[in-house]
């Protein structure tokens, strides 16, 4: 039997909930989304529109960049691929950093609660 979220959410305390839905880490997810938006805005002039209405890059999902860049002209195919690769890498690294921050805080708070309970 799994327990409910230790942060008071009415949800099972599992990996999906902690990384995706838990309100305790909403601020970290929001900060990462803003960071990725800034990274992208420096590379694309138009506002990037997420097909599902919210960012999910930290799950490994990227919007269809090819469709968004159809109006952007590049000098060579290599320049275009380099541009797309740069955006994808930036989003990927941001997702890894977000997961690390959430997991680190989760582990620290779990340990602190365990220490407090054993005193």
Give a short summary of the structure.
By secondary structure, the protein is mainly alpha-helical. The chain has helices spanning 15-21, 26-41, 65-68, 77-118. Helix 2 (26-41) runs antiparallel to helix 4 (77-118).
Entry keywords:
119 residues, mainly alpha, single chain, elongated
Rg is 18 Å
Order of helices and strands: HHHH
**What distance separates the N and C termini?**
26 Å
Main beta-sheet strand count, sense and barrel state: none
| Beta-strand content bin | under 5%
Please provide a written account of the structure.
The structure is a single chain. The protein is mainly alpha-helical and 119 residues long. The protein has four helices and no strands. α2 (26-41) runs antiparallel to α4.
Question: How would the blueprint of this fold be written?
Answer:
Blueprint: H1 15-21, H2 26-41, H3 65-68, H4 77-118
């Amino acid at each position: 039997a799994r327990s409910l979220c230790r942060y008071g959410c009415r949800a099972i305390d599992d990996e999906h909930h902690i990384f995706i839905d838990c309100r305790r880490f909403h601020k970290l997810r929001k900060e990462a989304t803003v960071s990725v938006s800034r990274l992208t805005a420096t590379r694309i002039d138009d506002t990037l529109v997420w097909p599902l209405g919210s960012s999910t890059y930290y799950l490994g999902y990227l919007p269809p960049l090819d469709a968004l860049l159809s109006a952007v002209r590049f000098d060579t195919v290599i320049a275009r691929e380099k541009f797309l690769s740069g955006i994808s890498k930036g989003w990927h690294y941001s997702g890894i950093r977000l997961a690390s921050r959430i997991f680190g805080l989760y582990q620290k708070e779990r340990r602190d609660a365990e220490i407090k309970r054993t005193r």
